[in-house]
Specification:
Blueprint (H helix, E strand, L loop, with lengths): L21 H15 L4 E7 L7 H4 L3 E8 L2 H14 L4 E4 L12 E6 L9 H11 E12 L4 H9 L11 E2 L18 E2 L2 H11 L1 E9 L5 H7 L1 H14 L8 E8 L13 H4 L9 E4 L2 E4 L5 E5 L2 E3 L4
Parallel strand pairs: 1-2, 1-4, 2-3, 3-13, 4-5
Antiparallel strand pairs: 5-9, 6-7, 8-9, 10-11, 11-12, 12-13
Helix pairs in contact: 1-8, 4-6, 7-8
The chain binds S-adenosylmethionine and zinc ion (ZN).
């Protein structure tokens, strides 16, 4: 069993985090809007999508977007707000390591600010590959271990081991992202070469690379204001996109998959769902479903299907 960051532990309201981070929010959306502008497709998955912060960036590109998140409470709390603004969005509570979908379902996918909670990226990317179609696009953002600030700090401490490709567990004394206080949270920064390697080995070819949040310094924002810092950010996004300087790196990938199954053209959610435990068909009855093979049952509560398994 792989440990998961369960935001429901503390009833953590992630929307609050973004109330004071206009610069970071706009910086990420700027990159994603550019990427999704030219993309079109049917089923799309935003993995760890939370309350749909990034939905505006992909909503007009895909006809059937899904927000998947382990936090059932976040999805229930934000269901009506999301549905009002984005009526075509479906929301599913599930674990990124065990997703309740048929093979070869998705034309597009996205993961932003979640990979630090994924301690087993090889397992995750293989599960992702299963549900994505051949030639689908998948966008992966992650916290860059060797960003400029972290690298300078390592050099200052003569800590040259820091530059290895090994994942870096961030020290977390206090953390509400799903881990009890006093315990080490699942919070990894990854080397871009490490993630590139895992993606390539799984079949995800990196077509483009972007950097983001180059100017994540509170003093700069105070001095120049968010809007001016954003202007500088957009310039740096163009200039330094291929470097290891930014704290946040985004890979735009395309999946090359040899073995595929017959693709379904259904737009109904029930037609793409299956049991995340044994990958068999489900039988649906009102707000409940059970697996024909392993008998496990899943419920829909307060509008959200709960397919979470560990
Ligand atoms: C820092 S938030 C990022 C939310 C959103 N992607 C954004 O950028 O605004 C991380 C989210 O990942 C979810 N998460 C963490 N581990 C997960 C897992 N194994 N499966 C599904 N969701 C997960 C959390 O519940 C949380 O909502
Ligand atoms: Zn089953």
């Amino acid at each position: 069993m792989i440990e998961v960051s369960n935001y429901d532990f503390f009833d953590y309201d992630y929307t609050q985090y973004w109330k004071v981070r206009k610069y970071e929010d706009f910086a990420e959306k700027h990159v994603l809007e550019k990427i999704f502008n030219s993309k079109r497709g049917k089923w799309f998955i935003d993995i760890g999508g939370s309350y749909g912060r990034l939905t505006p960036t992909y909503y007009n590109s895909y006809t059937n977007p899904i927000i998947l998140d382990y936090s059932l409470k976040t999805l229930q709390r934000n269901y009506s707000i999301i549905k009002k603004q984005f009526p075509n969005v479906e929301m599913i509570a599930a674990n990124a390591y065990h997703m309740p979908f048929r093979n070869d379902t998705f034309d597009g996918g996205l993961m932003v600010r979640v990979l630090h909670h994924i301690s087993e990226p090889v397992v995750y990317f293989n599960e992702l590959k299963r549900i994505m179609r051949n030639d689908s696009y998948y966008i992966q953002e992650f916290a860059n271990k060797v960003n400029l600030k972290a690298s300078l700090r390592a050099i200052l401490h003569l800590n040259f081991k820091f530059f290895s490709k090994k994942p870096y567990q961030q020290p977390t004394s206090k953390n509400f992202e799903g881990t009890q206080t006093g315990q080490e949270a699942i919070s990894f920064n990854y080397h871009p070469a490490f993630i590139a390697n895992v993606l390539k080995n799984t079949g995800f070819d990196i077509e483009n690379r972007y950097g983001c949040s180059y100017l994540r310094f509170p003093a700069l924002k105070r001095l120049f204001g968010d809007d001016n810092v954003l202007k500088m950010e957009y310039f740096l996004q163009k200039l330094l996109k291929s470097t290891n300087i930014p704290p946040s790196v985004i890979f735009e990938t395309k999946l090359v998959k040899v073995k595929t199954t017959q693709k379904s053209d259904s737009s109904k959610l029930k037609d793409i769902l299956l049991c995340p435990k044994c990958l068999s068909d489900l039988v649906f009855k009102d707000n409940s479903s059970y697996c024909k093979c392993c008998d496990k049952t899943y419920k829909k509560e307060e509008n959200i299907w709960d397919f979470r398994i560990d």
